[in-house]
Amino acid sequence: MSISTNQLKSGNHVEVDGTIYKVIEFQHVNPGKGAAFVRTRLRRASDGAVIDKTFRAGEKLRAVRSEAQKMQFLYADGDGGHFMNTETYDQIALPTEALKDALKWIKTGDQVDVLFIDDKPNDVQVPGSVDLEVTATEPGLRGDTASGGGTKPATLETGVVVQVPLFISEGQTIRVDTREGRYLSRA
What's 54's domain CATH number? Predict the structure, then answer.
């Protein structure tokens, strides 16, 4: 099955020169002079490397079949992240390189969508926002209020550090945007 570059959408998986990529961004460009083209930003499925590639408008690429399955995150070790299908109890492992961004936002026992590309596990899709507990941050000072402005670093239970408002303290649960890695609100 092929897909035209005019039909690309963010999140699509395509095969380019024998390698599978996920479309991160795309832009149709129609210059006043010359032929139209599509400028893309692609993430290689095998190792997560990001490349920029330009295609002629209407160029055909092989569309790759992708399917997401709900799985439970068990643990991460030197081999990568280990996941279990909660219906069949089958376990799979994904290499650490493929999970480097996702592991910052998931904790043991979380349900996540594991992306299978051509029936092989490949990537983990984390939700747009997650609720995590603050495990370490500087104590709030007198006068730190919601309207006070200013931020401070806070370490969350998964080990990631995000900037939070001054009034957030250890032990509180906060909602974090996983795409930008920024504080959204108290949970």
Answer: 2.30.30.30
Q: Mind listing the pLDDT tens digit for each residue in 104-117?
A: 888 888 888 888 88
Please report which helix (H) or strand (E) contains residue 157, including its range: none
CA pair distance 69, 115, nearest whole angstrom: 7
Beta carbons within 10 angstroms of residue 137's beta carbon: 20
Q: Please state, rounded to an integer, the average pLDDT across all residues of the chain.
A: 85
Whether 107 and 162 have beta carbons less than 8 Å apart is answered as no
Q: Which of these, 75, 95, 99, 70, lies nearest to 85 by C-alpha position?
A: 70
Q: Residue 89 maps to which CATH number?
A: 2.40.50.140
Q: Which strand (E) or helix (H) includes residue 152?
A: strand 151-156
Q: How far is CA 101 from CA 49, 105, 181, in A?
A: 12, 8, 10
Q: How confident is the model at residue 140 (pLDDT cuts 50, 70, 90)?
A: low
